[in-house]
Automatic annotation (TrEMBL):
Organism the protein comes from: Pseudomonas saponiphila
Domain ABM: residue ranges: 10-82
The keyword Iron belongs to this UniProt entry's keyword annotation: no
Name of one Pfam family that matches: ABM
UniProt keywords, alphabetically: Monooxygenase, Oxidoreductase
Name of the protein: Heme-degrading monooxygenase HmoA
NADP in keyword set: no
Amino acid sequence: MIGQTPAPPYYAVIFSSQRGAADPDYDQAAERMLELARRQPGFLGVESARGADGFGITVSYWSSEAAILAWKHHAEHSAIRERGRKDWYQCFHTRVGKVERAYAFSPQAQA
């Protein structure tokens, strides 16, 4: 699902990852992280997709760099990141950028 974000500027955290072997704990942990992130001040939304080959991209949107850092340092999020390094991911990259412009198209908006 496409995230609903406010008018720019805001920030995007882009998490690209390659999963390893399937682990039933992963889905539960991912749901818990989304639940926690939604409660964080400055959280604006998220978009996520994962292919059958295990490659995935999750983009979370935040109001400020301070909000991103607060989320990064959240104790439960930190613990899950460590579990990801140890058990779930073959590799990952995290990128943070400022969204200066955003464009959208929706056929319903054209009606």
